[in-house]
Amino acid sequence: MSTPWLVVGLGNPEARYARNRHNVGHMVVDVLAGRAGSRLSRHKARAQVAEARLGTMPGGAPGPRVILAEPATYMNASGGPVAALLQFYRVDPTTRLLVVHDEIELAPHELRLRQGGGEGGHNGLRSISQALGTRDYARLRVGVGRPPGRQDVADYVLSDVPARERDALAVTLEQAADVVEEVVTLGLDAARDRLGRG
């Protein structure tokens, strides 16, 4: 059996955080699980996990096996579950790990793919990089914009997406899920080319 992809959506686990900007990674994984008809369930690696096949390969074959995951820890402790899942499923983080997360340095609803790079102050990415001992893993960055005025960044990302923006967010989540499917079926470089930005 071929090695699966591990797609990790970052966020915080409690219901009160579910609609926060910081939880868009969870939201994208929820969309993907829904598309695949899969349900996330508790895994011993301290995560919610679903196994699925995503997308369609060139030629029409079903897409590859993918492990969809949401760490069940708080954001700043995401690294432990991610490292445990990589070990459990024998996944190489530099070739078959994709982390989906919020990004304040991108305009709301903007999407970008990259391999490696820094953490930009993102506590979830920092925790993953420390746990894995490498920054060389793929990330799908979902723009949430910077806080208005002098609002604290933490307060901003831990606040709910306003009702007036939720329709636009729903479109963005579907687009992000499309990008994930392209990554696992076409590869990171081809998906990045299709997205049109690095």
TrEMBL record:
GO biological process: protein quality control for misfolded or incompletely synthesized proteins; rescue of stalled ribosome
Major location category of this protein: cytoplasm
Enzyme class (EC, first level): hydrolase
Pfam families hit by this protein: Pept_tRNA_hydro
Location of this chain's protein in the cell: Cytoplasm
Site entry (Stabilizes the basic form of H active site to accept a proton), positions: 102
Alphabetical list of PANTHER family matching this protein: PEPTIDYL-TRNA HYDROLASE (PTHR17224)
Assembly, per entry: Monomer.
Membership in a protein family: Belongs to the PTH family.
Function field: Hydrolyzes ribosome-free peptidyl-tRNAs (with 1 or more amino acids incorporated), which drop off the ribosome during protein synthesis, or as a result of ribosome stalling.
Protein name (database record): Peptidyl-tRNA hydrolase
Lineage: Bacteria, Bacillati, Actinomycetota, Actinomycetes, Actinomycetales
Encoding gene (name): pth
